[in-house]
Specification:
By secondary structure, the protein is mainly α. The protein is 83% helix and 0% strand. The two termini are 16 Å apart. This is (S)-ureidoglycine aminohydrolase. GO terms for molecular function: hydrolase activity. Keywords: Hydrolase.
């Protein structure tokens, strides 16, 4: 899920990784 708070808490590195996985999952579903 897209959550700005997670970005501030985990840092830009982990946030990009999680966002990438989330986007990949959304593409698969659609």
């Amino acid at each position: 899920a897209f959550c700005p708070q997670a970005c501030y808490a985990g840092g830009p590195g982990p946030f990009r990784y999680l966002l990438y996985k989330d986007v990949n999952r959304q593409i698969r579903l659609t």
